[in-house]
């Protein structure tokens, strides 16, 4: 059973955590790894280097949109393929995050969290909450 009084705040918590995570990863690629370093990493794992900036911008702008609740559930859904790509890159490294080049569990969790956010909704305090077609109608029992 869903607690309709508190569920919007649970969705807010998920949205804030997911948005901050995307922003933090964009920051990591910009400041710590640097765009040139991230481009080199993409080349090492067999991906084209020109994807570096689109990935960084998707994480930064997408994270801001999710954090603010500006069409957040659509943005989360749009970022799931990015997370699945990260999962494919990290899958050969093993399960644990402290494996060299990072493990697969974190991108897998984030992909599921982004998908859950898209299903659950933006929650409380969203600037531009989004509703899916048919949302708000009573469920058929």
What share of the residues does DSSP label as strand, in percent?
A: under 5%
Question: In the residues, how many domains can be counted?
Answer: 1
Structural category is mainly alpha
Helix content: 55-70%
Q: What integer is the average pLDDT?
A: 93
Rg, alpha carbons? 17 Å
Low-confidence parts, pLDDT < 50 over ≥5 residues?
none
The gross shape turns out to be elongated
Tally the helices: 5
What's the end-to-end separation, in Å?
Answer: 13 Å
Biggest pleated sheet: none
Number of strands: 0
N-to-C SSE string, H for helix and E for strand: HHHHH
Provide a short characterization of the protein structure.
The protein has 141 residues and is mainly α.
Can you tag this structure with a few keywords?
141 residues; mainly alpha; elongated
